[in-house]
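From the pipeline queue, job 12 of 40. The input is one protein chain; the requested action is below.

Action: predict structure.
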Amino acid sequence: AFEIENLVEETSEWDDIDQRLKQFEKATILDKFISHEASSRLRPLRQLREQKETNVDDLLHDLIRSKNFKGMREFLVPFTKSKDQLKKRKFDQYQAMICSSLKESINDLDVHLSCSSISEATTRKIIRDFDVLNDASSELGNHITTKLRLQYEIQTAKKKLNGHLRGLLQLMKAGAKELDFVKLGTNKHFATILPELARAYVSKKTEEEL
């Protein structure tokens, strides 16, 4: 009983937990010899297990809603490994929710990177979206590739970001050539801020050009 209790508290390995509960259930045939101790301990163990799954479900919903994918793997992956069809369907539901959330970030990135001028506030939103996508890719990896080509989307967004920076560089050069110091100063400001804040997503080639 203590092993099962520890397993429930420390992991979300549902198949392993349920298998141990079934084994423990067999001990109830000895109840009449041990003052119904097995049954009295089995009931709270089952309640603990059900409460744990409810807590995990609530946590996953909260993490997806807040786009916080760090640490999600340990709660999500056991659903993928389960032989129980209900658990597999639950994983499919979570996968759809995660992909929907990530597509929102991808669409936001596309909108922000399509702007002719990117402010510091917009740059911070861009970084936030990049961080969300990278965390999801690192944490969930192959578990969401059937619904979303996440690495492809990240690389596409990076190309757009670096293309935008190179565009700013061209505008700076044009401003200098035309002696348009407003154009030169404005674009130099954004060309400086953007790579400083989004350094992790700026390519070496773009950095050298800047």
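Job complete. The mean pLDDT is 81.
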